[in-house]
Amino acid sequence: MPPRPRGPPLADLHFGDDQPTEAELAAIDAIVSPADAATVTETERVVRGGRIRRQGLRHLLLPVLHSLQHEIGWISPGGLNGAAKRLGVPPAEAYGVATFYELLRTTDPGHTNDAVHVCVDPSCALAGNEELRESLEASGAKVHNSPCLGQCERAPALFVQGVGRPDRVPADDDEDFRLPQAGDPGLRVLSRVGVVDSTSLDSYREHGGYQALASAIEMGPDAVISAISDSGLSGRGGAAFPTGIKWRAVADEPGPDKHVVANCDESEPGTFKDRILCEHDPFAVIESMTIAGLATGSPHGWIYIRGEYPRATARLEGAIAQARAAGLLGDDVAGSGQRFDIELRRGAGAYICGEETALFNSIEGFRGEPRNKPPFPTTHGLFNQPTAINNPETLINVLDIVTNGPDAYRSVGTERSPGTRLFCLSGRIGVPGLYEVPFGTTLGELIELAGGSVGSLAAVLLGGAAGVFVGSDALDMPLTLEDAREAGATLGSGVVTVFDDTVDMEAVVVRIAEFFRDESCGQCVPCRVGTQRQHEVLVELQGSGQALTPQRAELIDDMALAMVDASICGLGHTAASAVRSAIDLGLIGNSS
Amino acid sequence: MSPAVTETAVTIRVDGQEVAVPEGATILDACDAAGIDTPTICYGPTLTPVNVCRVCVVELDGSRALVPSCSRPAEEGMVVHTDSERVRHSRKMVIEFLATGVDVSQANELGQWAEHYGADPHRHVPGGETMNEPVRVQDNLYIRDYDKCVLCYRCVEACGDDAQHTYAISVAGRGFGARISTEFDVTLPDSACVYCGNCVAVCPTNALQFKTEFDLREEGDWRPEDQTVTQTVCSYCGVGCNLELHVQDNQIVKCTSPDDHDVTRGNLCIKGRFGWNYV
Ligand SMILES: Cc1cc2nc3c(=O)[nH]c(=O)nc-3n(C[C@H](O)[C@H](O)[C@H](O)COP(=O)(O)O)c2cc1C
Ligand code: SF4
Ligand code: SF4
Ligand code: SF4
Ligand code: FES
Ligand code: FES
């Protein structure tokens, strides 16, 4: 739990006349009982990212808003007042938080039907999302457009946000899950996926689970971190930062208020690997987080998972409960004498909350706005305390490294990109799905492994919306960090979306620009306005049927450079990269 | 120019000049010390930097992206460029971007900087999105014209942690749709607002305006050049806040407070800020 409230008094809060209904009060009570209500006479003030903020119960704001949304179907003025009062949060700030998230509504929908979200991103657009939308609307459903729902391998994707009943993904119900590479002895990160019973700790143990934790306890924190460093493991969330350096930095900070966070917010269009990992090997996420906690001396673990992943959420919650009951989480983890436990938090529809510092703000009950860096999370992370944040794929690699040692780990891959990498293949591809290959496999080999492209390959979007388009001349490119960098590309979060020559690429690129415009947090000028203007230029181009004029090309470049150079975070930094690569490749901008 | 170096000073190099500033000072402070003028929008001397507008960015050797000078602490040995091609470009684009969607005609020095950097808002796609907000006139004290709002967060900071601790307003929405708002956009009289006017004092674009100024502008009779400013001490209570009364045609038209005053730091309460309305 976060530190206790202390510090100077907070001015009396003012609430309007709107009162919560009984149903709204019950929704609030379900998260924070009246007995635990915040006392607003005392508060803690922390200076972070240049801002002074208070803590207290505020980290429960998003869970309370979720509860209201779920039970009532929207956040009403009375409901917001009730939530804000219970938590001691100014209502204007609570409103600022509620309006930040796509899955929270602050206007009365006038009905209590479920909200049906249909994906409008590229792989689903190629797979007939329009027909899906029409058939749903014909049956009377309220359909919302959604950015990528993380189910691109089974496009077109659908997510049903329940009112008064559980959220669900219809495709989960009749899924007979099988990895395309099932049974391949080369699988490391995916070795248990589709094999183990993901609801059973016993099954996980039968498949080698919790051996790594035992080894880690025996080795001690220092040796564990050294092994991670020696393995050359780098982050799989997009930035490819060396994990050993991150863990060492957190371990070197004085304790005990330190955190380990698993970033399961996965929202990069084209990415679905973390959903599959969390659904089909949830104990591995828990075990590897526990190793991170013990190695860095951080007793507090957090999982932040995107709100559109109900099954992954349920499986992780089940795994946490079973691990806790078995003494693998709690005050004395597996007899180590060390404490580590995990709290799970759900996002509410905001791509930007996958950015690590935005994620911290989101957990803390603030708007999911990224913080300026430095300072970095290793010293000023969650609650302004030292934090090691990792992607689940990064974390699961740790199990292999601790169990088999860094040399074995390095036996595949390249010197600078050791080990294997997960890739999410979708679009015009023979067998869409999640694949694991050694670093250094070429793009062409990967596409062949997935059944080859359907139709005549025109372009591949590598790294998702934040990545770049490459053409068929890139099929020889070895998929390593160094080769991608050299080619001006990125592996990002492992997205490989394939397009053939029948695809309307202008529509794809306009949609990518729209994605960034919709998902910008709006905090900094280059990105808030730049993503808007970039979208407008592309819409103009799309409607004109003309070639891109030199003036418009210059404008796009000018905007891109400012977004790259002056934005606060990676969203702004990458918002123009796919667009510009599409122009460079001649995918758009020629007269049509 | 090389100021005396004290034990707690850090020395950095700005555009080739050595500058010594006290520890904890920002790059912006160092630029000021070196006599280099820097555009700023979201920065306010009395506010915690939020570094969101990005107009003050500088190039820092060893940093891939540009850095906001208003919030980045100066560190020994830093080498900073304030007039490189990249800096000029990003500053130009920030100003240009703002001018495409916001009425910046009353934003103090922005016009000069726009000219200095060659910002051209007219080259963007015609008919693009703008703030498109009605003027909110909800009382006789001050108005909110969010068509002029650049979302610098200064009012939010002044209403919240940096001065007033009232938290009547916040940023709501996301992306280009973000707006300064009370909860559910309720009117100010229905909100937590206590009419201290501290938000009005820090607003750099005149999006927040005294009603007196707004009315005179509507009548085409707002004449700053004909105004005099009288310093006085507020007589409502014993704190001793300094007031600056702006007078046009023998009428008080607005009231400010000096930023550098050690009691008020630019802030006042409703009585000092607006009390003259009733006298
Ligand atoms: C806009 C944006 C979105 C991001 N989304 C995710 C995400 O969904 N999952 C993730 O692991 N990392 C995401 N990241 C990267 C994180 O900020 C962070 O680098 C990562 O979680 C660190 O873990 P790793 O070192 O294991 O990769 C995102 C970054 C940006 C700029
Ligand atoms: S770059 Fe975009 S997403 Fe990132 S802080 Fe700025 S406005 Fe927000
Ligand atoms: S007048 Fe004072 S209380 Fe009202 S919004 Fe402005 S700063 Fe907040
Ligand atoms: S109203 Fe003024 S102070 Fe507030 S954000 Fe807008 S421009 Fe800044
Ligand atoms: S789920 Fe539709 S593109 Fe990912
Ligand atoms: S003045 Fe520095 S970012 Fe706005």
Mind sketching the topology for me?
The complex is a heterodimer of chains A (592) and B (279).
Chain A: H1 22-29, E1 45-48, E2 51-54, H2 61-72, H3 77-87, H4 91-98, E3 115-119, H5 122-126, H6 129-138, E4 142-146, E5 158-161, H7 170-173, H8 201-206, H9 211-219, H10 221-231, H11 243-252, E6 259-264, H12 273-280, H13 282-296, E7 300-305, H14 310-325, E8 341-346, H15 356-364, E9 387-390, H16 392-409, E10 420-427, E11 433-438, H17 443-449, E12 457-462, E13 468-470, H18 481-486, E14 495-500, H19 505-519, H20 525-544, H21 550-566, H22 570-574, H23 577-584
Parallel strand pairs in A: 3-4, 6-7, 6-9, 7-8, 10-14
Antiparallel strand pairs in A: 1-2, 3-5, 10-11, 12-13, 12-14
Helix pairs in contact in A: 1-2, 2-3, 9-13, 9-16, 10-11, 10-16, 12-13, 12-14, 13-14, 13-16, 19-20, 20-21
Chain B: E1 9-14, E2 17-22, H1 27-33, E3 57-60, E4 67-68, E5 79-81, H2 85-101, H3 110-117, E6 142-144, H4 154-159, E7 170-172, E8 179-181, H5 198-202, E9 208-210, H6 211-218, E10 228-233, E11 242-248, E12 251-256, H7 270-274
Parallel strand pairs in B: 1-5
Antiparallel strand pairs in B: 1-2, 3-4, 3-5, 6-9, 7-8, 10-11, 11-12
Residues 119, 121-124, 148-152, 155, 157, 269-270 of chain A line the site of one FE2/S2 (inorganic) cluster (FES).
